[in-house]
Amino acid sequence: MNGNPLYHWIALAVSTALVLPVPVAILAGWTPPWMRKRRAGMRLRAYGVLCVYAFLLVNSIPRIADASFDTVMACMNVGLGFIAAGVVLLLLAERKDSGAQHASPVEPGEG
Question: What is the number of other CB atoms lying within 10 angstroms of the CB of residue 92?
Fold first, then answer.
């Protein structure tokens, strides 16, 4: 019913390798070079991406375990909650960044 579990394992491994390291590093204090000008909402952004990762976990684990249709549907509904929370967190991060001043370095001859 849930398809080949190998495909779900591959998707889970790839998403863990690609999605998980950056938000965990941000929460540990590291800022990626492409985001250094927008530091105000970094933690919110990291939590938003972790919500997306939780969505991936909640949807893939029942399928790997070959759970019943009702369990898979219940987990999909929980996953929609994680996606909604992630979207809200990412929008809050963007709003926080738009209100903050940019952290650009000042040239020696300026200001």
Answer: 15
- Quick: pLDDT tens for 65-78: 999 999 999 999 99
Burial 34-47 (b: 16+ CB within 10 A, else e): eeeebebbbebbbb
Q: How far apart are CA 103 and CA 82, in angstroms?
A: 31
CB of 55 within 8 A of CB of 82? yes
Largest CA distance in the chain: 67
Cβ partners under 8 Å of residue 96, min gap 6: 40, 41, 44
Q: Which residues contact 66 (CB under 8 A, 6 or more apart)?
A: 1, 2, 5
Instruction: Give the global pTM.
Output: 0.81
15, 53 in Cβ contact below 8 A?
yes
